[in-house]
Amino acid sequence: MKSLYPITKTFSLKHYGIKNATMHYQLSSEDLQEEIVQKGQGKITKSGALAINTGEFTGRSPLDRFIVKDSITENKVWWGKINIPFDQKAFDVLYDKVTEYLSGKEIFVRDSYACADPEYQLNIRVINEHPWSNMFAYNMFLRPEASELESFSPDWLIVNAPGFMADPEIDGTRQHNFAILNFSKKIALIGGTGYTGEIKKGIFSALNFILPTERNCLPMHCSANEGEDGNTALFFGLSGTGKTTLSTDPKRKLIGDDEHAWTEANTVFNFEGGCYAKVIDLSSEKEPEIYSAIKKGALLENVVVDKNGVVDYTDSSITQNTRVSYPIDYIDNIKVPSKGKTVTNIFFLTADAFGVLPPISKLTKEQASYHFISGYTAKVAGTEAGVTKPLPNFSACFGAPFMPLHPKEYGDMLMEKIENTGAKVWLVNTGWTGGEYGTGSRMKLQYTRAMINAALEGKLDNVSYIVDEHFDLHIPETCPDVPSEILNPRNTWADKEAYDDKAQELVNSFKENFKKFE
Questions:
Q1: Other residues' Cβ atoms within 10 Å of the Cβ of residue 46
Q2: What is the spatial distance between Cα 109 and Cα 158, in angstroms, rounded to a whole number?
Q3: Which pLDDT band, with edges at 50, 70 and 90, does 2 fall under?
Q4: Mean pLDDT over residues 465-486, rounded?
């Protein structure tokens, strides 16, 4: 057993059905990087970061995510296209096949935990087929001290076998890849896909069930940071809306970039020990904190690297979803531990490719509930096969693929938190202005930051507001360091009638989407 820590604890993989395997336990990031390079599974970039390719899958596969239907989940999970039921007996058979596949192989095992608040800590044991998957787990989960490992007892098990291909006709899967949660056995079983995001999202999905049903605690797909005054801001948003970028602010301490919970005591804690940022079009000028974090120990995924180790962050030939994972302490200005209190501002981020939503608007409590349940952003041409024009994309609670319960349950909890704290809620469009995608331009990051800073500093509390006629949103007429003419999106369109038509089109999409919740 090759190990990072000089600990006396030993255990056998036979307990998990894996026989005659060579186990590497708790390897350091440096040792893992050496293993990956030696095996030809990755290359060192000029910055010192390691670049790997996740293979066939460069993103999650939502239609291949399942939850075992049993006595715990049957009457609580919101079953449907998002939470797809899986048979208990079929799971047991498939688990045995995966562990048989892993038997006799070189296996990488890691003990870690989720939830930065000790009261909610979830101990996790990760069993990986590939060292780079284990390095991802090292970066993304919280890292225990050596003394904690001696008495470590896992609450949940992740078994990750990218090379195992299921047989859909026999195994009950849709295709050869799968990510299955079993709440009775407390196992996340992942196979047929090398995309590392399935590892972290499996535990996120598990916590999104456990925390509200067992701990009366609201799990959230959001980033969070804390100001010098101790006040916390939350940033909800789907991939590509700026959640990681906007919460990584040199003037505020980063609590976390993706997954948090809001407790009964009105504290907020991060689930993770790392960040998982998109790097498409990354530059040191636009996002210096993230750019600087890409160094030795960081794991780049599916980026294009030249023979000199230089990464071309503009190259999306492998995928638009290029990523990097790194330990959270690679960001200079972080909150230690990753906990906050006194939530005063909540931002719902959307990248509106139709160019009709205002860059910032203040929401009433009722609007906050509506937009949280809606979870709107837009897909733009080229991001997915078959997408040739902007399409509305609604994901309830800004994270539907990870939410096992009905969206209303999370929505009701959030509204109760807003009522109890008086937190202000803002809708922020990080998408297009002056026209839709292809005609208009993306909102400048410096303007979005200025608007968020103004909201955080109370500089939008006493300005005049106008009410948008299509969405009934309250738009500030002025904002420090932002040209007033861009605050009302209709003003930025040369063809006002075209704006009205496009805005009404999006309004209709909102209404149609919301019917399923009424």
A1: 12
A2: 10
A3: low
A4: 97
Please give the sequence-ordered ranges of beta strands (E in DSSP) within 282-416, or none if there are none.
299-301, 304-305, 311-312, 323-327, 339-350, 360-363, 376-379, 391-394
Maximum Cα interatomic distance, the chain, rounded to a whole number of Å: 73
8 Å CB contact between 159 and 188: yes
Q: Is the pLDDT of residue 380 over 80?
A: no
DSSP conformational letter for 276: E
Q: Residue 259, by phi and psi: left (phi above 0), alpha (psi -120 to 50) or beta?
A: beta
7 DSSP assignment: -
Residue 186: burial class (beta carbons within 10 Å; 0-12, 13-18, 19+): middle
pTM: 0.93
Give residue 517's pLDDT.
81
Among candidates 368, 371, 369, 390, which has minimal Cα distance to 379?
A: 390
Q: Which residue in 411, 331, 325 sits closest to 33, CA to CA?
A: 325
- For residue 347, the SS3 value is strand
| Cα–Cα distance list, 345 to 225, 353, 365, 413, 419 (Å) | 10, 25, 13, 16, 13
Q: Which residues are catalytic?
A: 60, 201, 221, 239, 243-244, 258, 323
pLDDT value at 8 more than 90: no
Burial 103-126 (b: 16+ CB within 10 A, else e): eeeebbbbbbbbbbbeebebbbbb
* β-pairing verdict for 376-379 and 323-327: unpaired
Work out the average pLDDT over 254-283: 95
Contact of 42 with 36, CB cutoff 8 Å: yes
**Nearest alpha-carbon partner for 489 in 502, 445, 508, 481:** 502
pLDDT, position 177 = 98
Q: Does residue 471 register a pLDDT over 70?
A: yes
Other CB atoms within 10 A of residue 189 CB: 25
Asked whether the predicted pLDDT for residue 1 surpasses 60, the reply is no
pLDDT in tens, 82-141: 999 999 999 999 999 999 999 999 999 999 999 999 999 999 999 999 999 999 999 999
The answer to whether 116 and 274 are in contact (CB under 8 A) is: no
